[in-house]
């Protein structure tokens, strides 16, 4: 099992939670194909609204990949993004700054935002647990969000 972070504005994360899906890298399939059913995915939102909304710098959703392959949808005649289905957990939006010192994937704590510029990237089990513990109450950890 692999753990992922997907960097996405909060407004787009909210659409994904409502529709039970994720997209990556502006709808491209490459990184979605690397994900497997059961992989964890955490969403980091640098902004509230894409592309120029107010800064947020928070973890905004967490869930598990719920299908076996990416699929393509038509959003408009010009935009056909690839998606993966996600079972989202009930969680609270969590500012990233209090967690920076605990997260191993952030190697240079003074330049902590650098890693998020990659869009989608892998994290280890330790970092997932730090994030999941901050976002999800133990009693609801395995409860998924209803559409």
Structure description:
The protein is of the alpha+beta class and about 150 residues long. It has one domain: ph1033 like domains (ph1033 like fold, Roll), CATH 3.10.590. It contains 2 helices and 8 strands. The chain has helices at about 10-20, 125-135; strands at about 5, 20, 40-45, 55-65, 70, 80-90, 95, 120-125. The two termini are about 25 Å apart. The model is unreliable at about 140-145 (pLDDT under 50).
- The CATH homologous superfamily is called ph1033 like domains
Q: What are the segments in which pLDDT stays under 50 over at least 5 consecutive residues?
A: 140-144
Calculate the terminal CA-CA distance, rounded to whole Å: 25 Å
The CATH level-2 architecture is identified as Roll
- Structural class call reads alpha+beta
**CATH classification, class level:** Alpha Beta
Q: β content, as a range?
A: 25-35%
Note the quaternary state here: single chain
The main pleated sheet reads as:
8 strands, mixed
The secondary-structure element order is EHEEEEEEEH
The outline comes out as globular
Number of domains: 1
Please estimate the helix content.
Answer: 10-25%
Rg from alpha-carbon coordinates: 14 Å
What's the CATH topology label?
Answer: ph1033 like fold
Number of helices: 2
Q: What is the typical, i.e. mean, pLDDT?
A: 93
List the helices and strands and how they pair.
Layout: E1 3-7, H1 10-19, E2 21-22, E3 40-47, E4 55-65, E5 71-72, E6 82-88, E7 94-95, E8 120-123, H2 125-135
Parallel strand pairs: 1-3
Antiparallel strand pairs: 1-8, 2-6, 3-4, 4-6, 4-7, 5-6
């Amino acid at each position: 099992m692999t753990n992922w972070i997907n960097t996405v504005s909060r407004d787009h994360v909210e659409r994904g939670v409502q529709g039970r899906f994720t997209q990556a890298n502006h709808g491209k399939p490459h990184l979605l194909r690397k994900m497997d059913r059961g992989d964890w995915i955490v969403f980091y939102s640098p902004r509230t609204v894409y592309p120029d909304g107010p800064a947020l710098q928070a973890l905004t959703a967490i869930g598990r990949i719920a299908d076996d392959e990416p699929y393509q949808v038509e959003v408009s005649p010009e935009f056909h993004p690839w998606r993966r289905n996600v079972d989202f957990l009930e969680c609270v939006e969590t500012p990233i700054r209090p967690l920076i010192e605990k997260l191993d994937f952030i190697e240079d704590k003074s330049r902590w935002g650098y890693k998020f510029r990659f869009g989608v990237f892998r994290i280890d089990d330790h970092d997932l647990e730090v994030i999941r513990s901050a976002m999800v109450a133990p009693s609801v950890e395995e409860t998924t969000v209803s559409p």
